[in-house]
C-alpha cells in the first residue's frame, strides 16, 4: 500500500515540477498565463463506500488550472502592438478556425491584412465604401495603403474682427499690390477636384455707416474669369461684397449687396446671417510667362460651390484679427502612419493631414475563461466548459481597454515559481523516502527465519 501511495506522491510532485518549469520557461512570453497544479486526495472504496476510519490511497492531479490575472503592460512604440488592460481576448482566424489570444504581436502581411506572429488574421469590424464602420459585421481587418483621393473644398468657416477705428483708404481704386488701398487682408488655401491648392485672398476696405467692402481673389485673379482685369490698370478684377455691421459691432442680418458672392439666407427667417456662396469658381493655372497668361487647369471646383461662413465676425475697436478659420478640402495624401485608440478604432494618418477610420478591433470574453482549451502558441479555443464568446468593442460592457504600442507581459512571478519548485522538490524527496522506508520494512520481514 505504501509503495503505491509513495509512487502517487512522486508522480504528483513530478507533475508539479513540470508545471512550474513550464511557467518559468514562459516568464517572458507575451500574453502567457501561468498554470497551477490542483491536486486531489485518493481513498480506496468498496461497493458500500469508504469507512469512517479509511486510510488514504495517495494523491491525484485533479486539474491544471490557468490563472488569467492581468500581466503588466509594457510599451513598445510599435503602433500595431496591442495590449489588453482588463478582460477579453483578441479574436484571430486561421483560415476560418477561430482562436483567442492575449498576445498582441500584430503586423501586416503582403496583402495588408493585420496578422499575429503566427500569420493568423485579426478580427474586427470593417468599413463600407463610404468609410463608415459596420458594427456587427466581423471580418479580417485590413489596412488600405492606397493614396487618399483629394477633396474639393466646399466650406470655409471664418471669424474675423475688423478694426472699427480705421478710416477709409484714400488710395483708389483697390489694388491688391498696394496696401494703402485696403485696410486689412487674410488668405486661406482651398482645393480643386484634383487636389491642387489655390490661395483665396480677402481684402477688407472700410466704408461708411458701419459697412466694409470685401474684395475676393483666388490666386490673385478673378475667381470666375481668371483673365478678367481692368483694361487701364491691368489689375485683376476681384469679386466684391458689402458686409454691413450693426451699431454694436455685430454682423448685420440685413441684405448683402453683391453680384458675385450669393448670400445664403436662414431657411427659417429668410434673413442673411453671414453665410456667402461662391459657385462659379474656375480653377486656373498660370503659364509662368511675363506677363502671365491664365487659363483653366482642367480641374473643377466643388459642384455645390464653396460656402463662406463668416457668422460671428465683428467690428470692434481692436486690431484686425482672424480668430478662427477652417476649410474642408485637401490634396491627395500618402499613408504615413497608424493610430489605434483605446476603443480599438484604427485610424490611418496621411501626409495631407487627414485621418481615416480603417476598422475597429473586437474582443471576446467568456463566462468561464478557465474552461478554455489551450492550443499552444499562446492561444485558446472555446469549449463546452468555457461557454460561447461574448464579442464586443474594447471598453464596452465588461471588456477591457486596448492600449496601442504596448504588449501585455506574462503574469508569471519568478520568485513565487522558484519557491514552488523548491516545495515540489521536497515533496518528491519525501515521497521517495516513503518508498525507501516501506522497502526496508518489507526486507526485514523477508529476512525473518
TrEMBL record:
UniProt xrefs under SUPFAM superfamilies: Flagellar hook protein flgE (SSF117143)
Keywords assigned by UniProt, alphabetized: Bacterial flagellum, Cell projection, Cilium, Flagellum
Renumbered residue ranges of the record's region Disordered: 146-185
Flagellar hook protein FlgE/F/G-like D1 domain mapped to chain residues: 84-131
Pfam families the UniProt entry points to: Flg_bb_rod, Flg_bbr_C, FlgE_D2, LlgE_F_G_D1
Biased composition (Polar residues): 146-158
Database matches in InterPro entries: Falgellar_hook_FlgE_sf (IPR037058), Flag_bb_rod_N (IPR001444), Flagellar_basal_body_rod_CS (IPR019776), Flagellar_FlgE/F/G (IPR020013), Flg_bb/hook_C_dom (IPR010930), FlgE/F/G-like (IPR037925), FlgE_D2 (IPR011491), LlgE_F_G-like_D1 (IPR053967)
Stretches assigned to the Flagellar basal body rod protein N-terminal domain: 4-33
Sequence ranges of Low complexity compositional bias: 159-181
Residue ranges of every copy of the Flagellar basal-body/hook protein C-terminal domain listed in the record: 403-448
Residue span(s) of domain Flagellar hook protein FlgE D2: 161-330
Its biological purpose: A flexible structure which links the flagellar filament to the drive apparatus in the basal body.
Family: Belongs to the flagella basal body rod proteins family.
Name of this chain's protein: Flagellar hook protein FlgE
Organism: Pseudomonas benzopyrenica
Gene: flgE
